[in-house]
Amino acid sequence: MSAGNVNAAETARFDRLAARWWDRDGESRPLHDLNPVRLNYIAERVVLKGARVLDVGCGGGILSEALARAGAAVVAIDLAPRVLEVARLHLHESGVRVDYREMAVEALAAEIPGMFDAVTCMEMLEHVPDPGSVIGACAALLKPGGRLFVSTLNRTPLAFAAAIVGAEYGLRLLPRGTHHYAQFIRPAELALALRNAGLELEDLSGIAYNPLTRYAAKVGNTRVNYLACARKPA
Q1: Cα(216)–Cα(229) distance, integer angstroms
Q2: What is the dihedral of CA 191, 30, 90, 177, to 10 degrees?
Q3: CB contact at 8 A, 79 and 11
Q4: Where are the alpha helices (DSSP H) in 70-229?
Q5: Strand 215-219 to strand 225-231: parallel, antiparallel, or no bridges (unpaired)?
């Protein structure tokens, strides 16, 4: 079901959600709730005004638009065409500028390496066959001194309970089959992939999220969902 470093079933699943991507009470509700935490994490480490930022696996553009609103020049890529169509249409409502492109990060890295001050890759690594290939391409796209920001799910029993049993089967916040436990990534595995790509890990932080109260915050515990920041040496 995969061609290159993409799983066709995954892109089809996200395309089916396209029309409801900007519904804050729909299947993308967790993305909307977590977005301020992710944006603040990035803004604490990169001056976004005037920065060139790439959003990898941008989906419908929730983070992409927030980065643009903060003053960044944003290129955003994804391989789900219907989701990108929704992202482009939403620009007419939001009034911000984002350059959306339907292409793989590896292809963009071959085309314009070393072009970005920051690259974001949120909730995407656990959906691709080869996360290391994505990280390597992200590293190639960074300018020296640039930073890569990643969020993903830890491969722990607690993450399985929260992201699959709770979110997909219990509360039905996400369609069943959205996540696959075997593809969750432990922080040590992510750190190794970052080192192999020539990046220096600067920070690991957890995200606490209560879907009932819609409360989200950065925390020290990385057992479920976590953020990472890595820097490309100057």
Answers
A1: 19
A2: 80
A3: yes
A4: 81-94, 105-111, 131-141, 157-159, 187-196
A5: unpaired
- Those residues whose C-beta lies under 8 Å from the C-beta of residue 213, and which sit 6 or more positions away, are none
- As a whole number of angstroms, the distance between CA 39 and CA 53 comes to 12
Interval 99-114: pLDDT, tens? 999 999 999 999 999 9
Q: How far apart are CA 105 and CA 116, in angstroms?
A: 13
Positions in the chain short of pLDDT 70: 1-4, 7, 9-15, 17, 166-178
**H/E run at residue 162:** none
Cβ atoms of residues 87 and 64 within 8 Å:
yes
pLDDT of residue 82: 94
If DSSP states are collapsed to H, E and C, what string results for 194-206?
Answer: HHHCCCEEEEEEE
User: Rounded to the nearest 5°, which phi and psi values hold at 114?
Assistant: 65, 30
Torsion of CA 213, 215, 220, 222, to 10 degrees: 70
pTM: predicted TM-score of the whole model, two decimal places = 0.90
If one counts every other C-beta atom within 10 angstroms of the C-beta of residue 234, the result is 7
Total length of the chain = 234
| Helix-, strand-, coil-residue percentages of the chain, each rounded to 5 | 40, 25, 35
